[in-house]
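Q: Hand in one record:
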Amino acid sequence: MKRVSSLICFHLILFSLLLPAVSVTATDTPAEVPAPNMITMVDLGAHKCIPCKMMAPILKKLTSEYEGRAAVIFIDVWKDPSQGKKFKISTIPTQIFFDEQGKEVYRHQGFLSEEDIVSQFAKMGVKQPAKVK
C-alpha cells in the first residue's frame, strides 16, 4: 500500500512538471473584480497548483468563447495573497460566480470542469457559445 501511495505521489509531481503554466489573464490582478455589469467567474488559484494548471486551458478557451457575455478571471493568490483574504478562500482552486450586480451566486472549491462552468453560466442566463462546425 505504501508503494502505491509513493507511486501516485511521484506521478502527481511528474504530471505537475509537465503541465504548462498557462496564464488566462495578465499576471496583475484585474482592477475590478467582479467585472462591472457582467456575469463573472473568478478562479482563485495559483499557476503552480496542479488542479489550477489542469483548469488553465479550460479558462483560456472560455475567456475567448464568452467574450462580451461573461467575464472569466484568474487570480494567482500565491502572487497576490491579499486576494485570497478578500474573497475568503481556504482552498485553491476556488471558483466564485457573480451576477451582473456583483453579488456572489455560487462558489465551488477544487477542479471545475468546462461542462460545469458552462452549466453554471447557463443557470445565470448566459447563452452558450455557438458550436463551431
About this structure: Confidence is low (pLDDT under 50) at residues 2-27.
